Amino acid sequence: MKNLLSVQEQLQSGKRKVTDICEEYLQTIKETNSEVNAFVSVDDEDVRKQATNIQQKIDAGTAGKLAGMVIGVKDVICEKGKKVTCASHILHNFESVYDATVIKKLKNEDAILIGRTNMDEFAMGSSTENTIYGPSKNPANSDFVVGGSSGGSAAAVAANMCDTSLGSDTGGSIRQPASYCGVVGLKPTYSRVSRYGLVAYASSFDCIGPFSKNVTDAAILLEHLAGDDPMDNSSSAKPVENYSEAVAESSGKLKIGVPKEYFGEGLDDEIRQGIEDRLKELEKDGAELVPVTLPHMKYGIATYYILATAEASSNLARYDGIRYGHRADFEKIEEELSLERKELKKAAGTSTALEAADIDSPLIRLYKKSRTEGFGTEVKRRIILGTYVLSAGYYDAYYGKAQKVRRLIKQDFLDAFQQVDVIVSPTAPTTAFKLGENQDDPLQMYLNDVYTISANLAGICGISVPAGTHSNGLPYGVQFMGNTFHEVDILRAAKQFESLQS
User: Fold this and answer.
1) Catalytic annotation, pick one of 149, 179, 191, 235
2) Residues 71 and 213 in one domain
3) Global pTM?
4) Which of the residues 17, 74, 104, 105 is marked catalytic?
5) Based on the structure, what is the number of domains in the chain?
6) Which is the catalytic residue, given 126, 173, 235, 244?
7) Catalytic site residue 434?
8) Where are the alpha helices (DSSP H) in 316-436?
9) Averaged in consecutive runs of 10 residues, what is the pLDDT profile of the chain (502 residues)?
């Protein structure tokens, strides 16, 4: 399987050039993106300029460690001079004035950033249908979704428009689309990768991580993304391990926890059987399968959608139509308010009654109109839900209780990791669903994250690896989760699983 290391060997020998690699990807994007809709913007001229500069460095022997890797970037991560819209009308013309830390790291190692990828608005969704750019479509079958919220990033890799891509994962937004599109998707431990320059959805959950065509490239990319960052107080100072070396030395002697809670009701029978068959192969290859239990996992969906929406309602309060982003037409607002006052005065009959009427000030109306026009339905739904659970009289009953359950879920994982190296599960209960199928059923949409959200609640790491192709022709994935900062373990398990398919 082709990976960065094999590409770099060809670049060093002169058999290939970065400029040619980029032209091939630009041509694929030109031919494919109109159907898949993975990229929302690609600057061909800038890509060619990057490629020429990096080829010169290769020729001079001064190229960085990621020279030759072509990367797509989810449109929620800041790149200087590029639009960062979060697939939302409220930021449709916003241009970043700085690079996110992960972007700086990639540029410093001479990776090529080929374009911005589609996503659910503000990373809120599981299908990449909640977007101002129109839905992304699954490369395996364009009638089906790509997953979300990092669906464009997953589809770009699956459709061979780039080597790797960056996504963000708040409740499964890297791993679930990786499963739906048949690629590798890695969510690192919370704080392992800097969030500086990532537009916030839920700050205690959000993680940046890679998509790739193979486990080796995911390990290489994570190695260069991870590390302490003075610009992010939540980032960890724990030393970064040599992930690529760990993958190369992968052994079969892993203890793999198999929780009954992840293989029960709601899981597609064919996916269950496919994963169980592969686990038996791993067992023959030297792995030990150990039954474990995660008793509080059943509360995961409810807990996550209380806590994440609460944080979202707070984070998205900054989009008020004043400081930046979409602003409603103030002149029209003033005209509307003037007409409302005239009509009320006519109906009220007295100035006292008019004064008692509930009419917004121009500023309050500007806030309301800007946010109403700028945010999509799903974002509004989550803001309202988050505001509700934080409101007086409901805070303790919902938000406070959810924080306690979050701690219990974390403890379940800590207990399980006393017995095993990694925990295995399906990545999603089904393969990708049809476009539009769940748009009117938010609860069903949320249930697509049932196997992934626990890792975000617990702050641990997880990776989705292609596990097979369903009889319906769509891919599905298997997820390995590891304890905090045990990325080496999940990468080894993923590499061993991947080798079964070679």
Assistant:
1) 149
2) yes
3) 0.96
4) 74
5) 2
6) 173
7) no
8) 330-348, 351-356, 362-374, 377-390, 401-416
9) 90 96 98 98 98 98 98 98 98 96 98 98 98 98 98 98 98 98 98 98 98 98 98 97 89 90 94 97 95 97 97 96 92 92 75 61 94 97 97 95 98 98 98 94 90 98 98 98 98 95 71
